[in-house]
Design a protein that fits this description.
CATH architecture: 3-Layer(aba) Sandwich
Order of helices and strands: HHEHEEEEEEEHEEEE
CATH class: Alpha Beta
Largest sheet: 7 strands, mixed
Number of domains: 1
Number of helices: 4
Number of strands: 12
CATH topology: Rossmann fold
Length: 193
């Protein structure tokens, strides 16, 4: 394991422990605020094709924003995980009842549902254990979202709690930053390199 990988592994443990220490009431409250910010942003920008994620554990949940997007008639896509290929595809969902259990204990869309062309999405909301002010992300280490970030021209919005936003994270040459970061405190424009 390289020094870079060791540093990332340590940071994963730190941020995961901080997040898991949150109580359920705070997770719900912060997730509600983040979802409200997401809804306002989506409506303000007039986005029609949206890619979200389903929260894992105590990740910031965008369920309220997803539900509002259904009501508003937006095209909503969620990721389907292909563990063998270590990749994600995004499939259209029309309601939460479309979701089925997938790997990692996450609810996922049926892969038979319409698959999104990553180039046609307006915005993609991306979870992370931490983000830095330049938009670089600390994920879980599987590289699933890294591949998506390279392939899409959609606006990339990282989603986290404010304590997960840091000044700097270790970066590799292949890392792709997000454009904006969404926390309970609002939307932050990432500093360009």
């Amino acid at each position: 394991m390289s020094a870079y990988q060791e540093e990332k592994a340590k940071l994963r443990c730190i941020f995961l422990a901080k997040r898991e220490a949150l109580n359920e009431f705070l997770v719900k409250d912060l997730s509600f605020k983040i979802s409200q910010e997401a809804v306002e942003f989506i409506l303000l920008q007039g986005f029609a094709k949206l890619a979200f994620y389903m929260a894992k554990g105590k990740e910031a949940s965008l369920s309220k924003a997803i539900g509002k997007s259904f009501v508003e008639g937006k095209k909503v896509y969620l990721p389907k995980t292909w563990t063998q290929e270590r990749r994600l595809t995004f499939h259209r969902v029309y309601s939460f009842s479309d979701l089925v259990p997938g790997p990692f204990g996450l609810l996922e869309p049926n892969p038979k549902n319409e698959e999104a062309d990553l180039g046609s999405l307006n915005v993609i909301f991306i979870p992370g254990l931490a983000f830095d002010v330049k938009g670089f992300r600390l994920g879980y280490g599987g590289g699933f979202y890294d591949r998506v970030l390279k392939e899409t021209s959609a606006l990339k919005v990282g989603v986290c709690y404010s304590f997960q936003l840091v000044e700097s994270l270790p970066v590799e040459p292949h890392d792709v930053p997000v454009d904006l970061i969404l926390t309970e405190d609002g939307i932050i424009q990432c500093q360009k390199l």
